[in-house]
Design brief:
Elements lengths: L6 E2 L15 E2 L1 E2 L7 E3 L4 E6 L14 H4 L9 E7 L7 E11 L5 E6 L17 E8 L2 E4 L7 E2 L3 E7 L3 H17 L23 H10 L1 E2 L3 E2 L3 E3 L10 E5 L7 E7 L9 E6 L2 E10 L2 H5 L5 E3 L12 E7 L12 H17 L5 H10 L4 E5 L7 E7 L65 H10 L5
Parallel strand pairs: 1-5, 4-6
Antiparallel strand pairs: 2-6, 3-13, 5-19, 6-17, 7-16, 7-19, 8-9, 8-18, 9-10, 10-11, 12-15, 12-17, 14-15, 16-20, 21-23, 22-23
């Protein structure tokens, strides 16, 4: 590096639909054609769209959040061939830099409507809402959440290598089995292969149809390759070790974030942005076996915003939900309760619940599992830094005068999102860890092929017995 310009291996455009662009895709599948080739040891720049492919605008309405087409999301740049990479190798991905496009110095945070995407707290906050953030160097501010300014820990939400046919079949089988077994009738618990609006770069019509029938959705992260993990610490200077499953690795990246809180709680909870990521790639031969890896590992970089510990409040949450129901060691419930405690606290200063919900998703808050051994309650904590605000939020400064906090963006004609206070009161199972399975199979003992088995058989074809 330093002797010649860093090569830019792709281009994206906001003047044409994402699903018409050659170097982009929105499924994981081993047969998606290469979008370019990168040498082993090379540093390159990769352009990325925001995860919605440009569906969200810089405006004061959440209509675009309410109506976002979730079959047209997670457009990833790639897949790129890394020369010399073979199955069983590790791909060392070193993130050198991440920046927004110079002509798009803004991003967005969204709360998705419960009927179209939802989010971590959607039982209580089911309405669509949005905040636009302006980037000022390393800092960001929002007209929709005033009196807040903080530095971003900029990072990609998604990076990974393509699955092999065998790995893809494993994903489709186990996620399909979960879909077939779940008893939360008002919830999607996983997303099976779906040909609607599949995009696979320059794939032919026949190959595109195959990828639509078999390809895994990019929404969840998965242990075999990472993918959509939304780890905020994969920022500049980080090193990620990714298992390689196919020749050339077929590496893809996208879903860039200017900032994010631990958990990205509103689903579109980071400050989503389009931009350019600079990465160095190195192949480690036979690295999977040598390190005994079952999933990716990473080393965080040295660049991270610093906040004073003495000016940080931590809210505690336990496996007792907001209606007083006891759950067993449910970390999901505990974290949800910690988030609700922070939202309640921020009301004291004039923020409404939706502004606070948006802020917790994208500000550099920290979530920690404090205890998972003391039955029946797991304990989780969530931080809120006083230095995010231009006024004092510490308990010692009470009483506070409420400020005029304006409002975030809602749908046209809506001045405030709904708050459902009694949500989840009669739930039979935990939203997270307490899910139970219903009995499957047809009457008379005949075994019915599950969604997962059907999907796996499609991928592997006659090799499945």
């Amino acid at each position: 590096m330093g002797k010649e310009a860093i090569r830019r291996v792709n281009k994206v455009s906001f003047d044409m639909p994402a699903d018409t662009q050659a170097g982009i895709h929105n499924r994981w599948h081993p047969d998606i054609p290469f979008a370019g080739t990168i040498k082993n040891g090379e540093t390159v720049k990769i352009e990325c769209m925001d995860w919605t492919g440009g569906q969200i605008g810089n405006n004061d309405s959440a209509d675009d959040i309410r109506n976002v087409d979730l079959t047209k999301v997670h457009y990833l740049s790639g897949p790129f061939e890394i020369e010399g990479a073979k199955p069983g190798d590790l791909l060392l991905v070193e993130i050198m830099d991440v920046q927004p496009f110079e002509d798009r110095p803004w991003g967005f945070t969204g709360i998705f409507d419960k009927s179209n995407g939802g989010g971590f707290l959607d039982e209580m906050y089911p309405s669509a809402a949005k905040a636009i953030w302006d980037f000022e160097g390393i800092f960001c501010t929002s007209r929709h959440i005033p009196h807040v300014k903080f530095p971003g820990l900029i990072h990609p939400g998604i990076l990974g290598c393509a699955p092999s046919a065998e790995v893809l079949a494993t994903w489709n089988k186990r996620e399909g089995d979960l879909i077939a077994a779940n008893r939360l009738e008002d919830r999607e618990v996983a997303l099976p292969p779906n040909p609607t609006n599949v995009h696979a770069g320059v794939a032919s019509a026949d190959l595109k149809a195959k990828i639509g029938a078999e390809g895994a959705r990019t929404i969840p992260g998965r242990p075999e390759h990472g993918g959509n993990c939304d780890i905020k610490n994969l920022s500049r200077g980080s090193k990620v070790y990714l298992p390689v499953h196919v020749d050339g690795a077929k590496f893809s990246v996208g879903d860039l974030h200017f900032s994010q809180g631990d958990g990205e709680i509103s689903f579109c909870g980071a400050i989503e942005m389009a931009g350019v990521i600079t990465i160095n790639f190195s192949v480690i031969p036979n690295g999977v076996a040598d390190l005994g890896l079952k999933s990716p590992i990473y080393i965080p970089g040295p660049v991270e915003p610093q906040f004073s510990p003495g000016r940080t409040i931590y809210f505690e949450g336990f496996s007792v939900d907001h209606n007083g129901k006891q759950h067993y060691m449910d970390v999901n419930v505990a974290y949800r309760e910690a988030c609700l405690r922070a939202i309640e606290y921020l009301r004291r200063f004039g923020y409404n619940d939706y502004q606070s919900y948006l802020l917790l998703g994208c500000a550099p808050i920290q979530g920690h599992v404090a205890g998972i051994v003391d039955i029946p309650n797991a304990c989780v904590t969530l931080s809120l830094q006083d230095e995010l605000f231009d006024f004092d939020i510490l308990p010692a400064a009470f009483p506070h005068k409420k400020l005029d906090m304006g409002n975030c963006a809602f749908e046209s004609g809506v001045s405030m999102g709904r708050v459902v206070e009694g949500s989840g009161k009669n739930s039979e199972v935990s939203f997270g860890g307490g899910m139970t399975y219903k009995e499957g199979g047809k009457e008379g003992g005949e075994k019915e092929e599950t969604v997962g088995e059907k999907a796996a058989n499609l991928v592997l074809g006659s090799s499945v017995v």
